[in-house]
């Protein structure tokens, strides 16, 4: 709460200090301040994940059913590799929904969900609950320690570098 208050004051100070600047500079400063406030109010975390003791195909089908239950329009699935699928959808408010499924082992799948630009924890938790119901299995915040993670056959230097982003387990 204290951190939220500090960021709110910081955003307000940035907007007020930009007033004498005029033009595009003031507009950019105000936009940055507003973005900081939105980021802090949303918890600042965009991705939420959980592990399910089920195959990727089964979790993919259950994810599509959870999308339907939540009123999310399913746009399709991209198979990035044999061990990684990306499901995309759109909320009724127009936010993009991305669920990345990663095969951790034959019957263990990590489901990473991101709703909108900054993430939406309450909708992500609702998705996780519905996904668990459709699978008939409980989710876990930690990967099983007895099973090694799946390896893609992509050399490290050939893999595209993604910007780092913070992920937290669903609870």
UniProtKB/TrEMBL annotation:
It comes from the Bacteria. Residues 161-171 have a biased composition (Polar residues). InterPro entries: Flpp3-like. Residues 143-171 are annotated as: Disordered. The lineage of its organism: Bacteria, Pseudomonadati, Pseudomonadota, Acidithiobacillia, Acidithiobacillales. This is DUF3568 family protein.
